[in-house]
Amino acid sequence: MMTPLVIWLGALAVVVACAWFGRSRAFALYSAVSLGLQVAIWSALFPDAGPLRIPFALCQALVFVHYLRLVWPRMRSTAYRAAVSIPALWFAAGTLLAFPWAIAVAVGLTPYGWWLPYAICLVGVAQSFGSRHEELDLVLDGEHREGIVRCDAGSLRTHKPLKIVQLSDPHLGPFMSVDRLRRICRRAVEKRPDLILITGDFLTMESQSAVDELSDALSPLRQLAGRVIACHGNHDLEAPATVAEACRRNEIQLLVDQEAVVALPEHEVQIIGADFRFRDRREHLAELCRRFPRRAGHLRLVLLHDPGAFRHLPEGEADLVLSGHTHGGQLGLYSLGLPGTMMRLFLSIPDHGFWSRGTDRLYVHRGNGHYGFPLRLGVPAEESLLRLHLMTPAALSNAPRLERGFESE
Question: For the chain, which domains are there?
């Protein structure tokens, strides 16, 4: 009789072979590593699973089905996502978080509480379908600060701030249906912003060919035609034609290393949209800034999907950079009112919120959706209205000074 380990290794071989011949070597390698970890961790925990062995083995099978179906990706029905995609991603996330328990087994210890990561990830499933609605005032005061540091939003105010809704990382796919993204876009329009700026990653593997679905999901944004501007994220480079066509249908201006100038009643805004680059980012951004120098009297915004590239932007080239990519860190303590995330334990990249470097400012959106690690946990998605207060000398002379607890006339 075959042991569970033999069965899972056989299933792993089938998925990797299908990925190799049916899609690409890169996806085959990704599947081998991801599913290999699943098999290694769950094999260690399986003997101690007791009455949960059978239901959890079925969940493990769903993980393999999910990966196998990605060989031929397309948007899935609500029923499929509820029966296969979501349980599979929950179990995959729980198994990854159970890694310390597998290590305990490897050194001869009993993995007490091995089920705890799976229980915690049930909370993550619920959190992955929600968003936190916020209104934020960000002061662009031009004050010089050393290094890349998290900074407070500031308390000075102008009478006519620029109102922006940023959308980022919708990742149309298992956790982001067409209906959900359409509702997010509709709420963005209902906030009546001056601009809606989209900082990339429209897609997942499942939606790379979903032109009609993505176009339908973005359709509410047509109501603000001429004031919706986007840039690429890294996942969009896997299917740029899909993103370009969905943006064209909805009159969204997609900036691929390009500039847009928007004249609003109270503001002149220059927007630079940087294409995503994996390499030579410093040279790429320097050249982009040379091609599109500052326009006098304009607020200068840069759409830069990856906040890790913020340090490569020439200093003084942006009043505000808008980024996404990190999904806010995705695992952390934000829901408890604390800024810490798992990502910041290992990387120096800004994870969420308002940051400074020199006189430049950066806002990192927590994302409308997520991808990569299967769930959010402690870091909710974001639907916010940003009010930008640009502190010109004239504005500073008239701004209410709230930081000392009183308001000047």
Answer: 4-126 (no CATH), 133-398 (3.60.21)
